[in-house]
Amino acid sequence: MFHWDDDLERRMRAELARREMWEKPLREEIGRLQLEVWRLKQLVQHLQGDKEALRWKVREVLLERAFPEEELLWAKRVLEEAWLELSLMGSERASEVSQLIHHLERIWNARNPRRSISEPPPPEP
Fold first, then answer.
1. Contact 113, 70 (CB under 8 A)
2. What's the CA gap between 32 and 29, in Å, rounded?
3. At a CB cut-off of 8 Å and minimum separation 6, what does 75 contact?
4. What is the DSSP letter of 90?
5. DSSP 4
6. Which domain of life is it from (predicted)?
7. Residue closest to 72 by CA, chosen among 111, 115, 98, 99
């Protein structure tokens, strides 16, 4: 027959309370650090997005300097043909070429705000 030891139970409760007091600040610190890690991950994602946007802005500026108006249209047509071929082959590079075409269109539209690159130029009289 088992006998319940009240003294043992009291000592166990005291030990559990002591352990709880010791672990509580550690749990709080872990929670705070997890929140800080999450915040830093969000910051890194945001900065990576900014970095990518700046890289494309630099590419736009360089393309704008490199191509006069006629060459810009020629480069766009060549890139569209390349994009079509890459898309038909299922290449992963097709999306990069598509982004480049988009940026050429933005450069064109910035130079000619009234004419869109997708619209043909008006006929000359």
1. no
2. 5
3. 63, 67, 104
4. T
5. -
6. Bacteria
7. 111
Give me the pLDDT at residue 116, please. 55
Quickly tell me which residue has 């409760």 as its tokens. 13
Give residue limits of the domains in the chain: 1-53, 67-116
Four-CA torsion 102, 60, 104, 109, nearest 10 degrees: 100
How far from each other are the two terminal CA atoms of the chain, in whole angstroms? 114
- At 8-67, the pLDDT tens digits run 888 899 999 999 999 999 999 999 999 999 999 999 999 999 998 898 888 878 877 877
Percent of the chain with pLDDT over 70: 86
**Nearest Cα to Cα of residue 117 among 51, 62, 67, 44:** 67
CA-atom Rg of the chain in angstroms: 32
**3-state secondary structure at position 125:** coil
